[in-house]
Amino acid sequence: MEERTIAMMTGKLALVIGGAKGIGLATARALAEEGAAVILTGRRQHEVAAAADGIGPSVQGIVADAASQVDLERVMREAQQLHGCIDMLVLNAGLSEPATLPEETAEHFDRHFAVNVRGALFGIQAALPVLSDGASVVLVGSIADAMGVTPFSTYAATKAALRSYARSWAAELAPRRIRVNVVAPGPTDTDMMAAVSDEMRQVLIAPIPLGRMARADEVAAAAVFLLSDAASFVTGAELCVDGGMRQV
Questions:
Q1: Which of 96, 102, 41, 49 lies closest to 73, judged by CA?
Q2: What phi and psi, each to the nearest 5 degrees, are found at residue 66?
Q3: Which residues of 119-132 are buried (b: 16+ CB within 10 A; e: fewer)?
Q4: DSSP E strand stretches across the chain
Q5: Coil/strand/helix, residue 208
Q6: DSSP code of 98?
């Protein structure tokens, strides 16, 4: 089965927006291991270079801001020049910063929606001329899209927006056989969690039946499944990788 999967991804191009660290990096690595050529993006040159070099020669890094429509269009042009078309697109760029309702500011709101939602919307829009018919798109959402999450209500709202967009985009792009799905992790042990206190980590882990946070590679494995032909009849769906947190 493993050899068949690798053969199916060999010769294909995967673009991972927000692929320099965390879940995006783990996904870029997993796709490269499955035989795909990979382009990953990130905002910081040193992180992008380290990510690409760390995976290997099949990976190229491009410095780009996912919140910038101009940058996203440039990335798509470079991908087209290098490979002709994109077969797999991962929209992973995101941020999560706490703010209670009294603490919310216009700047905090705009920053979250610019990266988490605007980046995905204009990322897939810019990719449309470059996506091959039959391509697969994965949005990295969160189980927070259907939960009350304080003090991360704005973050949760952005992920709910992605979940809604995935349904509509799946319907709109179905005539081109382009599948659009969401992988929705629960608390995941990435750099984003590094600043969280031990007390908060225990609070996050407590409601998870499997008793721990996800690893980035576990979320990446679910994303690779949705991108692969093994999920050829799956579109508009959300695959939760949460240790049962929202399921049990």
A1: 41
A2: -65, -20
A3: bbbbbbebbeebbb
A4: 13-17, 37-42, 59-63, 86-91, 131-140, 179-185, 238-241
A5: coil
A6: -
Question: Rounded to whole angstroms, how far apart are CA atoms 174 and 236?
Answer: 10
* Interatomic CA distance for residues 142 and 204, integer angstroms: 14
Phi-psi region of 102 (alpha: psi -120 to 50; beta: other; left: phi over 0): alpha
Dihedral angle computed from the Cα positions of residues 230, 20, 145 and 119, in that order, rounded to the nearest 10 degrees: -100
233 phi, psi to nearest 5 deg: -115, 25
Kindly list the distances between the CA atom of residue 17 and the CA atoms of 47, 60, 103, in Å, as whole numbers in the listed order: 13, 12, 30
Burial of 195 (0-12, 13-18, 19+ CB in 10 A): exposed
Domain 2-240 has CATH 3.40.1110.10: no
For the four alpha carbons of 166, 29, 219 and 146, in that order, the dihedral sign comes to negative
> What average pLDDT does range 54-72 have in this prediction?
97
Candidate list 122, 152, 155, 165, residue with the active-site label: 155
Strands 131-140 and 179-185: parallel
- The pLDDT value recorded for residue 195 is 73
Angstrom distance (rounded) from CA 60 to CA 53: 8
Is 155 designated active site? Answer: yes
Give the distance between the most distant pair of CA atoms in the chain.
Answer: 54
pLDDT by residue (tens digit) across 166-186?
999 999 999 999 999 999 999
